[in-house]
Request: fold
Amino acid sequence: MRTNLFIGAGLATLVLLLFLRSVAASAIVALAIPICVLGTALGMTLLGRSVNVVSLDGITFAVGMVVDNSIVALENIDTWRKRVADVRRAALAAIREVGGALLASTATTAAVFIPIITWQGEVGELLRDVAYAISISVVLSLLVSLLVIPSAAARLLRARGATPTRRRSLFETVYERAAGFRAGVRDAVHRLTSSPLKSLGVVVAAVSITSVIALVLLPKMEYLPTGNRNLVFGMVMPPPGQSIGELTALGGENQRVMMQHTGKRVGDVPVVRRSFFVGDPERLIIGGVAANPDEVKGLRDFMQDLHARIPGGIGFATQAALFSRGIGEGRSVELQISGNDMKALIRLGRRLMGELGKAVPGARIRPVPVLDDGAAELHVVPNAEQAAALGITPRDIGLIADAYIDGAILGEFGREGERKVDIVLKSRDAVSRIRDEGTLGAAPVATPAGTLVPFGVLAGVEARLGPTVINRVERRRAVVLHVTPPDDMAFEVAIERVSAKTDELRAGGVIAPDITMTLGGSAGKLVEAQRQFAGILLIALVISYLLLAGLFENFAAPVVVMVTIPLAAAGGVLALAAAAALGVSIPLDSMSALGFLILIGVVVNNAILIVDGAIARVRNGAPLPAATADAVEARVRPIFMSTLASLAGLTPMVLSSGEGSELYRGVGAIVLGGLALSTLLALFVVPSIFVLLWRAQREVTAAAQSVAGEPSAAE
Reply:
């Protein structure tokens, strides 16, 4: 991540140098990067937040963003240097002219992260550091552009004078062509805005097409990044009734196979660097690490096949997720089946395993507990009348049964502060004598009267099958199916298929009315995160509109600015689609979805520059089409400069790979694609809708003044 940060900063500085053609001017703008990066780290510390991988993501996202304000400020200073001989006066006049636009763009970018900072839960905690980092960075960039940039420009730059005649260099030829491009854009915008019909057509076409693209191509979501950790966990649930010795032998056999592949390649199986196994009476947990981290998925598949060959057991293997509370729970749909009849739940669970295996092809399905009748156990039913006659209570009967079978824990022994030792009451030869219900029923018990009676006189002993694990959901017995979809199936698709299959079975009468089916784990969290994120996007849009309305003192101008948001959304979706077409997997998860929120605060900046310049020219008396076209021409260079600097800063994040890259690659791709597309389209869409709304607003104002009997404002 630190490497990406430095590379992004270097590329952004190179873009500045190519545009500004001056080492001094580039250095002035580049000052914003170290000041904002170090200031953000200090601000995070003062707010009690740590500088970690996630917050470094936010700082890296902001590398290209923090130079935006500085570019606009220096570009306007450069423009004023042509008008005023004194560089200090030029710097002051330039900052006064664009100060409002800088404040508006910074306030909008920072404000959209307010809902993220207040978001509770796992996703909110993960994204909060990114929100803090970007917000602090852009606020600091505003201070740099208003204070540092004009001061440095006044001291390091000279007044623009006449350039002596000399042979043009290649770069100068390119820059002259760029000036011609700006003039061409101005002419195109002027022709477009002079015709209301053309303006309306451009706006409707752009917004409609990009909205359809965003809705149709938007991929299904994952919950959280799974990461690419080089660690595989396997779990094997053996058949009921197996002894500890049998489980140990099973784990030893598994470990023997793993050792055959440790340190050497056998066939197509990845080389294993190390492996282990641990267990308890209910399960075996097996782990493995690949010698080559790029082959960890191959190791997972090998371990999955190895565990599937265990007779009578249920086994699975999964790559360890970055965010998971349990083994195999990071990317699994947790279907909770609860009811009162455990046997009915087990039968339904078996049916659902087959049905869900068809609905989600290639899924790994793990039931908890194992869907069988359970293991053999002894049930002791006290004979209350006979026991009371002999002076023995039901509690005494339970204590005697424990002592004969496993040993009854009476208490603990040990000094204060030291480890305690259990005091256990048990029969000396319980292991050899108590083997079944017959031997327990014949075991002698001393009564308070001093006589000996068989245990069977005090209680009946029956051998039954009972569950090895008891699960409850809302105090009802439950069976849980963990459905892990294949890697090429989006998690949201798996949720939809599981939900559709359970609805189909319930409609067909397979699922009884008294049985409750709920989605828990990551599936339930994803549904809740989607609902919360939709609310956050809506709040961010409302906050942005109100801020812009207050800063522009106009209710139509924010609509013009925010029309760039659907354009950017389409660009972000197209970036994900392009990556998928190229074979690069960039899933849309709760982390990468943050890119769409970042776009709300970023893409409006270019529109703010155009609208602010157009309003200023209109208020100074310029005709509406000419004022809009001139505003676009004046802002083309800083818009392209800041956009390319931002794209350069994001590129290393998108192209990087390795451990932890999934945390930020999706966000970078969405912001990169959205910023690129919205920048190109905004040059024509924003002027078009601005002219349409401004004319409509003037007509409404004139009509209102006419009704009130007041003179209308001149055109």
